[in-house]
Amino acid sequence: MRAIRVDSEWARAGVYYVRTEAMVLGFHLSLEGEFAEDSRESEYVLVVDDEGRPLSTNRIHLMPEKGFAKIERVATISTARKLGAGRLGIEAAEEWIRERGYKKIVITSREEAIPFYEKLGYKTKYDMNSRTLEPKKEGEAEAAGDPRFICVYMEKIL
Q1: Of 117, 141, 112, 114, whose CA–CA distance to 129 is shortest?
Q2: What is the pLDDT of residue 150?
């Protein structure tokens, strides 16, 4: 198993495959909704098995105006879960972000994935808004969203 920085069409196709299988089919999301924020400039990590089959992916979003980078759209195909593919993808994204000089990484995670990210050194910050990535105001609650994706803000200092 290896993680690659996506810079070719075959690897980009792998990203789309993983996200379609894991999110569109797995969580019954619309194709448009899953890919609405992507662009040709989006940067991805793709994890493939020893035969080159796609297993896991994530998108890197550099946010210099906020002073951190964000790992987004983390997805692993169902048959590759618990095999280390997601971990390998996150570690590869962290290395790429570190090389660019960022010291802080943010992930907005589904609640059920918190233990996975905590094992990788991320801390849940309930005082931060997972949508705005800003501190919550006094008495502020998260906006209601898709109940399948109740998200929390997590961060890691490199």
Answers
A1: 141
A2: 82
